[in-house]
């Protein structure tokens, strides 16, 4: 008698892990790092809350939504949990300052924190139930772990080459996983939540060329994951085995036409769960631009150390041409040609514009993306001398080369294998410094210090409502 081997159930195995997850499983250094990652996300949310595109979105939802239980960061208002998740996510993603994952590009904080903040306040309003800091920390870790694994199952950075906005595709599952963990769902309930979250996943990478929608796409995923979880809480059934179903399954559909063999890798969903922590591959940004532009900035910074006169308006006259050589995924994502005028979104996504900004201004931070900076003649003079080209043999997202040819014939060249913030990662102390620098222009110092102290002692806090009360009052626009 021939006995067939049992078919693997990757979705169900992942759901069981989520349902049984405990903070006790997590090494202390990972827990500590998670608190600093959360602090970075909060800084990005405070900076992003009053940006022009954030204000447009917020005012639209204030006009359409009734008051609710969930805090809108920086606006001294509350809306429904779903609206709050959408807006707060768009704030965190609002200025390309937030985290990214080195192997499966998504912005975890913009997915997880808005989901858990909104859900925690919803539980307080409807059930009188407090959410502790330890519960928030635990649920955040679940989302930080699940999101990248979903991405790796779709070949990580490669999905950018197919035109999908990777984090918006991976993100609904990450949001639902974290919310399911906070609600202490059974494995079956988690599966329902993931099944409904995954059928809402989407995100067109064409949003990067200038639309405000780029800022909100992770917000769609956060909202959708939270909605799926609230439905599952009421017994609403989702798609079973959603990841590996051969007809209409998540991995099958989002890998269609990707040219990979195999097209998708379902084993990545559960590979080394609880042994290797994907949270360690969450990268924190030192620059206010798309992650794929960061190696370009690093290359130019290294060249400027060798040739300090290649910074400022005088550098324009010295430069004959600039070549930026990118791996295929990075080229497809940020190597596009640009033309004047350009919107902030397109500027921050463009390797060419970011390179010119670093050359002329010596910095790539929020101040460099004010409207007058987007129209700077020196920057556009360098843009006109700059071109990106793909390194056809390279699949790397981070390995890049910049070659600057001067008018005197001298050629300056630098290559990096990974970006600062990835390898080497920003240390916890550097993240604390980044927090201080970012929020200095948008909130008062005492409030900033109280937020930081709360987050860095998160596992000792009895109620996250105190944190939300600190995040709620008004903030300033950092580029006004």
Please give a structural write-up.
Residues 13-259 form the MmgE/PrpD N-terminal domain. One of its GO terms (molecular function) is lyase activity. Residues 287-459 form the MmgE/PrpD C-terminal domain. InterPro entries: MmgE/PrpD_sf, MmgE/PrpD_sf_1, MmgE_PrpD, MmgE_PrpD_C, MmgE_PrpD_N. It holds the Pfam family MmgE_PrpD_N. The protein has 480 residues and is of the alpha+beta class. It has 2 domains: 10-284 and 426-471, 2-methylcitrate dehydratase PrpD, CATH 1.10.4100; 292-416, 2-methylcitrate dehydratase PrpD (60s Ribosomal Protein L30, Chain: A). Helices cover 49% and strands 8% of the residues. The protein has 21 helices and 8 strands. The strands form 3 sheets. It has a 4-stranded mixed β-sheet with strand order 6-5-7-8. Strands 1-2 form a two-stranded antiparallel sheet. Strand 7 and strand 8 (411-416) form a beta hairpin. Helix 2 packs antiparallel against helix 20, helix 3 packs antiparallel against helix 4 (81-92) and helix 12 (294-306) runs parallel beside helix 16 (351-361). The protein is globular.
